[in-house]
Design a protein that fits this description.
- The chain crosses the membrane at residues 20-41, 53-72, 101-121, 127-144.
- InterPro entries: DUF4956.
- It is built from seven helices and four strands.
- The chain is an alpha+beta fold.
- Helix 1 runs antiparallel to helix 2 and helix 2 packs parallel to helix 4.
- The chain is 58% helix and 16% strand.
- The mean pLDDT is 81.
- It has a four-stranded antiparallel beta sheet with strand order 2-3-1-4.
């Protein structure tokens, strides 16, 4: 009887050791894959500075999801318990870029695959999707041919601004629209605010120099549209 119990204990120990090893592999692999995902995110991010905390969040969530999937296994009761526990969590942070949400799901999917033991699938999924995302980034798929910008022109008070710059705009721009007119410098000048899209290959300096020749060399600025 004691020999039988010792054999059962030995099998249990081996099972526990195997589960621990699988868990460590899943955690480390999900961490490595999330590093690949976040590197891709940093490489393809276009909206100026990105948030370091968001990059860390993707890594942490990938590892946490992997551990959750290990804990759940085939236990439905545990799964429902975790759903109830996590249902009290509320995320209040608004995403500035819809693509950020996709990268969160990307990291979570890699973590789920690692947690369920599909290591090869997790690696293949991460590599293939990363390549596809990078190809979309290189091709600028879905991007606009012309980037809309804001143009601000300061003119003297005695200048009639209606259609005064139309000749220049027709030469350098694909699109322009006067959005706002306001007084500045204690009412001695006007500021015209336009929404514009330059023709391909036209540098900002060339457009600004042409306008300065018309507005008595007063202030002209070009900026990005929010």
């Amino acid at each position: 009887m004691s020999q039988f119990m010792n054999e059962i204990q030995s099998v249990t120990d081996l099972t526990t050791k195997a589960a621990v090893i699988e868990g460590i592999i899943a955690i480390l692999l999900s961490f490595v894959l999330s590093l690949v995902i976040t590197y891709l995110y940093r490489k393809t991010h276009k909206n100026g500075r990105y948030s370091q905390s968001f990059v860390h969040t993707i890594i942490i969530m990938s590892v946490v999801v992997a551990v959750i999937m290990i804990v759940i296994g085939n236990n439905i009761a545990v799964a429902f318990g975790l759903v109830g526990a996590f249902s009290i969590i509320r995320f209040r942070s608004a995403m500035s870029d819809p693509k950020d949400i996709a990268f969160i799901f990307f990291g979570m999917a890699a973590g789920i695959a690692c947690g369920l033991g599909f290591y090869l699938l997790a690696v293949m999924f991460t590599i293939i999707l990363s390549i596809l995302i990078y190809i979309l980034y290189l091709l600028d798929y879905g991007g606009l041919k012309s980037t809309y910008k804001s143009l601000r022109i300061t003119i003297p008070e005695n200048m009639h601004y209606e259609n005064v710059f139309d000749e220049i705009f027709e030469k350098y721009l694909d699109y322009y629209q006067l959005k706002q007119v306001e007084t500045t410098n204690l009412g001695t000048m006007y500021q015209l605010n336009y929404l514009i899209a330059k023709k391909e290959g036209i540098p900002d300096k060339e457009l600004i120099d042409a306008i300065r020749a018309k507005n008595a060399n007063l202030k002209v600025s070009i900026g990005m549209v929010n």
